Amino acid sequence: MEEGTLKSPGHCEVTTGQADEYGDTDPYQWDAREDCEVRQILDRVADKWSLLVIALLDRRVWRFSELRREIDGISQRMLTVTLRQLERDGLVKRTVHPVVPPRVEYELTALGRTLHTTIRSLVSWTEHHQGEIAAARADYDVREAAVRA
Amino acid sequence: MEEGTLKSPGHCEVTTGQADEYGDTDPYQWDAREDCEVRQILDRVADKWSLLVIALLDRRVWRFSELRREIDGISQRMLTVTLRQLERDGLVKRTVHPVVPPRVEYELTALGRTLHTTIRSLVSWTEHHQGEIAAARADYDVREAAVRA
DNA sequence: CAGAATCCGCATGGATACTG
DNA sequence: CAGTATCCATGCGGATTCTG
């Protein structure tokens, strides 16, 4: 598990890899710097499974195996990793019931619910425009095939 | 030559057809199926570089090397791949000026601009809550360290 | 049931060299 | 300048096994 080096918000510090000398000021603080905290958070949100998990958790409380069954294609390992990351970020609350067999339940925190609103709009956009995207892809593929021929 | 349309190497190729129309617009139908088109699009949008590129392109028209310089940490290869994907999806328009040396400019399409609105809100959320997330992480790490000890 | 731990295949993506 | 092509290291993530 990677140790996220955390600095105060706004302070940029290189996590891993070479630092190199930066120096110029960036008009848009959030974007370019890969050591920028906002980018780290975006990377977390914009990962393969997080969006799915958050969207599901918004509906109700889920048990681990329920999520596993519901999310098609996720491995047990990745579900665990994803849930831990979201829990660490304060987006998901994990509740262990001391019973046998174990019963662990997951739900969104208040913070997680605010994020869900945004995610919801992203999903909505995708739903609304999937036709246009499919058309654009088909168009692109045809044109590229023509060039290649 | 790698193609972006690669599915995850899982076994779940239920309906490998392009599924042009699922018919239903159920708000909560998008999630589970990994063959769902919405999920494929989300995977594209939610990748490491796409968000960054789209956000930059909304500002103005950019040349290739400008983007390369601006996006810290991206390799020339990944910038090319990302731009091609976005172009294929109809989100980015690529204009080649037949001059020497070559001049290629990138900008958002109308479709891309509609997505930018959503992305902008995602970035805003991140900016707004990065403090809370940092605190949650610190809290989590402390507690985990305590357990481990 | 929920997960931790382990092994490891292979896609992801960086570095380099070459081209129009 | 704006790519393409190639090689190759890294690590993501799947499969499996073991535990409380």
TrEMBL record, chains A, B:
Residues 1-26 are annotated as: Disordered. Keywords: DNA-binding, Transcription, Transcription regulation. Residues 36-134 form the HTH hxlR-type domain. Pfam families: HxlR. GO terms for molecular function: DNA binding. PROSITE patterns: HTH_HXLR. PANTHER family: TRANSCRIPTIONAL REGULATOR, MARR FAMILY, TRANSCRIPTIONAL REGULATORY PROTEIN. This is Helix-turn-helix transcriptional regulator. It comes from Streptomyces beijiangensis.
